[in-house]
Amino acid sequence: MRMRWTNRQPGRSCDYPSRCRMLLWAVILCILACSALQCALIKKGPPEAPIVSNLEKAGVQGQEVQLSNGVLFIPDFFEAQSDTVDIMMHFHGAAWLVERNFYQTRKHAVLVSIHFPGFSSAYRKPFSDAQLFQQILDETLIALKERGIVEPDARVGRICLTAFSAGYGAIREILRVPAYYEHITGLVLADSVHCSYVNEKELNDAQLAPFLRFAQDAAAGNKTMWMTHSSIQPPGYASTTETSDYLIAGVGGERHAASGIHGRGMRLISAFDKGNFHVRGYTGTVAIDHMDHFYSMAIPLAQTSFKPASGE
Q1: Is residue 15 part of a domain?
Q2: What local confidence, expressed as pLDDT, does residue 18 receive?
Q3: CATH number (domain holding residue 64)
Q4: What angle do CA 195, 98, 134 make, to 5 degrees?
Q5: Could you tell me which residues come within 8 angstroms of residue 232 by beta carbon, excluding any fewer than 6 positions away?
Q6: pLDDT: is 83 or 244 the higher one?
Q7: Does the pLDDT of residue 5 top 80, yes or no?
Q8: What are the two backbone dihedrals, phi and then psi, of residue 266, each rounded to the nearest 5 degrees?
Q9: Per residue, what are the HEC states of 91-132?
Q10: What's the pLDDT tens digit per position in 255-282?
Q11: What residues pair up with 65 in beta bridges, in sequence order?
Q12: Burial 184-219 (b: 16+ CB within 10 A, else e)
């Protein structure tokens, strides 16, 4: 017989209300139990995963100090050996990757990484204030002295400026200051240095003048300069291939064909060497090819004039 819950049967009491009440209480108890469990999870939280920094992932050991405009990195192998401290200052890109590249070179120096989001103007504008570069150097020395890394009377020794992509905007402004230019001993430029066109296809001499002067001094053996570039042709302004050709011509040179696989599979197609001025040209016309130059900066950084760390 089919039970009809809506009708009362003679001699029997309908159990519909009682069953509804039981079902309702079951739902309420389930909700309360779930709420209690949720509260417990919120209070306790899931098991915490161990925090692994980018430096640890990269196998890099040292101290990081936050500066007003960047990050100071002191590698674990750095030991003050004189009253001067050599400084490498990099512009543009994640600090952890710059530090990994720098750490791999095992150079006896400290590193300052500066990253301003944007294009070259993001660096050109602040560093057009000639005091900013000196302020960063002063703050770096103070941080080292406060931590007992260097002696109280320590001063800045050699300076190497490095840049990826848009970071050349800062270096160009710094090189325009005579006192800074004389103090800077090296440049490393990874798919960096662009300029605008004049009369459609002529490169802007004024924008490249500081780099040309440095390239000429490097070619004469007085400074050190390394450039790597991709084969990317950006819209509306000179490529790193064009600016490299301009600088090579400016020292009376000519690049030659070359081959090899470097870094993360970068294919070498040209090279130029004169004195301490070196250029390496690679294939690659897309964004990942551009980034390869950043990831592979340890190669040219290792060629700087900084002394190797003690015991290296």
Answers
A1: no
A2: 52
A3: 3.40.50
A4: 70
A5: 191, 239, 240, 284, 285, 286, 289, 290
A6: 244
A7: no
A8: -70, 130
A9: ECCCHHHHHHHHHHHCECCEEEEECCCCCCHHHHHHHCCHHH
A10: 999 999 999 999 999 999 999 999 999 9
A11: 72
A12: bbbbbbbbbbbbeeeeeeebbeebbebbbebbbbbb
Per DSSP, the chain holds a count of helices (H) and strands (E) of 11, 12
Q: HEC string of 143-200?
A: HHHHCCCCCCCCEEEEEEEEEEHHHHHHHHHHHCCHHHHHHEEEEEEECCCCECEECC
Residue 274 lies in a domain: yes
Residue 197: give the domain boundaries: 54-301
Is-contact 156 84, C-beta < 8 A? Answer: yes
Amino acid identity at 207 = Q
Q: If you search the block for the tokens 């000639």, which residue do you land on?
A: 130
Strand pairing class (224-229; 184-190): parallel
Q: For position 10, what pLDDT does the model report?
A: 40
Which pLDDT band holds residue 252 (cuts at 50, 70, 90)? very high
What pLDDT, on a 0 to 100 scale, did the predictor assign at position 33?
A: 42
Structural domains in the chain (count): 1
Q: Identify the bridge partners of residue 87 per DSSP, sorted by sequence position.
A: 110, 159
Distance from CA of residue 136 to its chain's centroid?
Answer: 17
Q: Of 175, 270, 173, 168, nearest to 217 (Cα)?
A: 175
What are the pLDDT digits (tens) for 284-293? 999 999 999 9
* Token pair for 182: 């004389």
The whole-model pTM stands at 0.82
Residue 253 phi/psi, 5° resolution? -120, 180
pLDDT digits (tens, 9 = 90+) for 44-63: 332 333 333 454 556 899 99
Residue 143 domain flag = yes
Q: Name every residue whose Cβ is closer than 8 Å to that of residue 75 and which is 6 or more positions away in sequence.
A: 60, 61, 62, 102, 103, 110, 111, 309
Q: Is residue 30 part of a domain?
A: no
List CB contacts of 56: < 8 A, sequence separation 6 or more: none
